[in-house]
Amino acid sequence: MFIKSINYDKFLVKVKIEIGSFFDMKEDEVYVVFKELDTFNTLELKDAFEKGETEILKKLKNVLPETIIDHNFYEQENVKMSNNDVVELLFSKNKLTTKVVGEYISALFQLPEKE
Q: Where are the domains of the chain?
């Protein structure tokens, strides 16, 4: 039996991307955790691949805020940054964007089969 309140979180594939080195910290000290895209957004992302890198990045910049399920970016000591602000930060540096997008897309299109 599938019980949403118990099993839904386990059902979704999650990708933790560690990026501390971009902030002069240990790699695992700064991270973002994304969940997989829903079916329609995945199909739209696949369509964007035919149009080129700019379209891929536009699509991801639009949808990534809703896929973030955890991060450790803070505005102030006890106030987390919004998911939109985190994505803006991730897209503010080319090498950081390349790492995050590369790892996310790689995980997204090579989802492990569930038993």
A: 18-108
